[in-house]
Design brief:
It comes from Lactococcus allomyrinae. It is built from 9 helices and 13 strands. The protein has 322 residues and is an alpha+beta fold. The longest helix has 19 residues, at 213-231.
């Protein structure tokens, strides 16, 4: 084990589901997820006193010792502490042998509580912690091992989930994901934008909605068709299938899935042939992800959206991790 006295900073992307966000919650369910670059970062450095967790969001610091990481399930730092404990325990049998302490700083512009942007902040915390701890302590855990630790952490703390967000954020780029079975890289050839409504929605509550088997079958088929359109670089087919997927959700998800702002944004985006928009994630607020074959009308669209207090942001798909 090589404990470094220098600091380690790991940048972490956010995730946006654009297909299969409900179907992937069941065994073998399929989804397409992309990751976008964010300002989210986890920094670890040596501490002169106790170990400490600190963040720029509205959360109190938490002090502890590495040799005895103890906390209750109601601790607001549960995701970070569980990720820390599981990552260290993967390579270090006796944590009591650790004599140095660390300072962990989490910087996030993803929002917190009612201001969350819907980019998967809890998954970003977990993946960022696992990667930063692995690098700082020289644990040399492979990407697959880090994914398993992050997935186990997120599932244990949240109590549910498909791990699609963990898969996307840990691997980076865009992925075709099969619940707990496969992670296949996907290369999206078009520019991406995010339309933000400014309304937060807690995804875990929305994913408890009961849906029919016919819905799941149709969703999986559309995920495969959308992935195929990406693979052959057929934007028109991609948009057609993305809109079919959107319609499937609108027909099956209870009222409230598409808010007024999401409705306005979706109609304005998809009125342009060279743009394809889809409500990201579980709906009920948050974002629309936009793919652009051409961005010739983006400035005009941005100005129109401002009239509805909707923000359009150019985003960049993150690099793949190793």
């Amino acid at each position: 084990m090589n404990i470094s006295n220098k600091s380690v900073t790991v940048r972490v992307p956010g995730k946006l589901f654009f297909a299969g966000e409900y179907a992937v919650t069941r065994p073998n369910g399929l989804a397409l997820v992309t990751t976008i670059e964010t300002d989210f970062a986890v920094r670890i450095s040596k501490s002169e006193g106790k170990s400490r967790l600190h963040t720029n969001v509205n959360l109190h610091d938490f002090e502890f010792t590495l040799s005895h990481i103890s906390f209750d399930k109601e601790n607001a730092w549960n995701f970070a502490l569980t990720a820390l404990l599981k990552t260290l325990s993967a390579q270090i049998r006796n944590l009591s042998a650790l004599t140095e302490e660390i300072c962990v700083e989490i910087q996030s512009e993803m929002g917190f509580g009612e201001q969350k942007k819907g980019y998967g902040s809890s998954a970003s915390v977990v993946c960022g912690m696992v990667n930063a701890v692995n690098e700082y302590f020289g644990l040399e855990l492979a990407l697959e091992e880090r994914f398993e630790i992050a997935a186990a952490t997120h599932f244990e703390v949240q109590g549910s989930g498909s791990m699609g967000d963990i898969a996307a954020i840990m691997y980076g780029g865009s992925v075709f994901y099969q619940n707990h079975h496969r992670i296949i890289p996907v290369e999206i050839p078009w520019k991406t934008y995010v339309l933000q409504t400014g309304k937060s929605a807690k995804t875990s509550e929305k994913l408890k909605i009961e849906l029919s088997e016919d819905f799941f079958v149709a969703s999986d088929e559309l995920v495969i068709e959308i992935a195929t359109a990406i693979d052959i670089n057929d934007f028109e087919l991609f948009k057609e299938k993305l809109l079919e997927n959107q319609l499937l959700l609108l027909k099956n998800i209870p009222d409230g899935y598409m808010t007024y702002k999401l409705s306005v944004g979706l109609n304005l985006v998809n009125s342009h042939p060279e743009l394809a928009g889809k409500i990201s994630g579980a709906g009920f607020g948050e974002n629309i992800i936009i793919f652009a074959k051409s961005d010739e009308n983006i400035d005009k669209l941005r100005e129109r959206l401002k009239n509805y207090e909707i923000e359009l942001i150019e985003s960049k798909i993150s690099m793949r991790n190793k």
